[in-house]
Amino acid sequence: MSQDGRRRIVITGIGAVTPCGMNVEETWASVKAGRSGISTVDGFDGIVRIAAQVKEFDPLEYIDHRTARRTDRFVHFGLAAAAMAIENSGIDIAADAERIGCSVGTGIGGLKTQEIAHKKLFEAGPDRLNPFWVTALIPNMGAAEISMRYGTRGPLTTECTACAASAMSIGSAILFIRAGMADAMLAGGVEAPVTPLGLGGFGTMRALSRRNEDPEGASRPFDAQRDGFILAEGGAVLVLEELGRAQSRGAHIYAEVLGYGMSSDAHHLTEPDPTGGNPARAMQNAIADAGIDAGQIGYVNAHATSTPVGDTAETKALKLALGEERARQIPISSTKSSTGHLLGAAGALETIFCVLAIRDSYVPPTINQTDPDPTCDLDYVPNTGREADVEIALSNSFGFGGHNAALVLRRWDAA
Residue 355 maps to which CATH number? Predict the structure, then answer.
């Protein structure tokens, strides 16, 4: 228990499939080195022809052929990431299934399934639709399939709050464990939006970068030449456990989860609060929940998606939340410059990056920052990562519709 009587929560397992690697360590090595996972989408001829794709991924390495056929790609990523996180943690779910839950979010769900079903409807009629198309489409199936495969029987939930979904799924897991509703949770996010419908829809709303001739340079958070985010796919899952439980089984502890905060912009469908005030409240709430001072934050993984309005607004929010003087002293990076924007899976992946920044005493770079925007004037670790003693890290996630979430992590020190 913490000094205020709350149950303490630690991270004991991590797993991910991303455009930068088939597992956590491959992904982290690419991000640390400043390599981009963005490329041209073969065979797509639209306004936007670039994305961050998970290449050479074979779902049959993690699931059987029948499961693969009846589920969408976003579920495949979730099952793979969960398998890695569970193995990494060494947690025995079957031995305590009723006290272990699953909270996995997504922004969209089965977009490819929807495209296939729509085409089938008009080509062959409603009676020829795949009977599994509804269950393959709906967003909760990322969490549900993981739960069914591994037998978790505790809380089971899905946040579907756009780009804040997986950060809020981790937040829900935190609240469940604190409330005594579970002792451990699989928490994270999954997304597979790189389809004609996804690229076309986000492209026509002018949310995506149109730098088609320079894929690796297209995601450029905080840079004056940024023109939109890069659609990305993948999945990330963490194992969260009550501290005593983790210690009793001798689990390796990556970090402690100290705080979670939320807020709402109540402003616009897609644009963030331009004043930064409401996103700042999410950070302030997380810092207060953690019981720390803003001056103790040693690294921030920014939401920063490479949109003109969003990155400027987040810069303002960071100054408000941390105090302008402190905000200028903290290394802040947007790893979306390498991975692209995994939408509902972004927050979970970036939480893992915070865990690894703490573990390795290394903050990853924001690549492609060649022409710094004067409205984005903080230390964004441009182009090259650096060693840094990170004890406490903050991760931001903001979603369409004004959903704001922030998480605070601390280095685990058994002493």
Answer: 3.40.47.10
